[in-house]
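Protein modeling request. Please complete all fields; requests missing the sequence field cannot be processed.
Requester role: graduate student
Desired output: 3D structure, token encoding
Chains: 1
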Amino acid sequence: PAADRQTHAIRAEVDAVAIGSGTLLADDPLLTARGVYRSRPLARVIFDRRLRTPVSARVLTTLGAGPVIIVAAPGAPDGAARALESAGASVVRVSGGLTDALRRLVPMRIQSVLVEGGPTLQAALWREGAADAVRLIVAPRALGPAGVPWVERGVAPFASWRLVSVRPCGADVIIEADVHWTD
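Delivered output (183 residues):
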């Protein structure tokens, strides 16, 4: 519960929270900032190249909490795009990589993005050098063989991170590090 409150507090500080389509399909999250004050709505960004997001996704039931932006590839099905737009989402087609997609968010007043979900999205973030900081919440429990990794082994350059803090948060531990830093 303490780590969940911390996560919602972080969501209150950023312009948008983002996940990949795999996380959306597996977890069907709301992606809202609950129990905290925000001065403006929180944008929710779903990176979904193939537009697999169902119109029944729970995030689309919370449009009053902020816009839902689905980033798709140019070849994604037009029918799916129309259905998602009818459900209230904005579909943005991007032909480049993740960095290009993030740049397309800037004119929408989105300059800070909390990327929460999915090893595929996390790997793309690291491969393109698009992460500025890391905040890991480590829970004292094993996920087992069916657990989903945070990111593929060898993708995140842990050795180059500058540790900012390690602090307890209830039963969990929060590790914060800067990725791009200078002395």
